[in-house]
Amino acid sequence: ASAYDSVAQLQRRVGERLLTYLDAWPGEPASVLDLGCGTGYFCTPLRERYPQAQYLGLDLASGMVNYARKRCSQGANWLVADAESLPLASESVALVFSSLAVQWCARPEHMLAELARVLSPGGLCVFTSLGPATLNELRSAWAAVDAHQHVNTFLPGSMLLTAAERIPGIELTVEEQVFRMEYTRVRDLLDELKTLGAHNMNRSRPTGLTSRRALQGMLQAYEAKRSQGVLPATYQVIFGVLKKS
Q1: pTM given for the model
Q2: C-beta of residue 243 within 8 angstroms of C-beta of residue 174
């Protein structure tokens, strides 16, 4: 948790863009849930935007919540919990803000159903998730050396829409934006992913240590993507707006 923000440039860019999605909502919510709050980076901007609202930061990782509690100690509430099984009363939350947490939910239909349950009538959730084209450069570089799945594969926005259609009382719209990060070395990207805790969660991931030969082959394959002196890393970001009737 203490090192996370030092490499979370993408997370800040995406979260700051997500905040702008609240501009069109004129409401003054009584409560704001920061779902997947991480280090609490967006606690301050959310509280500045809604000074009268009760803020609740929630994350599955206790280390993140402990760090966030120290960072934003005054007037905020914190909870260690799972987005797919929220320990909150029904219709108790007016606004949910969730940036780059949804992609880690193994069962998005459970997460969406929980949002539908805890949101009050007329409530709103804005969220971001990662799409399947995320880190396609790294994925193709690994594919040049073996058949294992070394990079996480995330659900497309269409699957989120399909899941939402099965849940009464909510309306979900999504749009996609591409964010490009640039690196001097591939190892800088790998070190960043490690520090962020973005571990490979796929069932077909390699079970043993990656050989030095395979790693060198991947690095060489990625080098072929260098353009104007930098190595690109593309993130497909899904922006979702969920409204409860």
Answers
A1: 0.93
A2: no
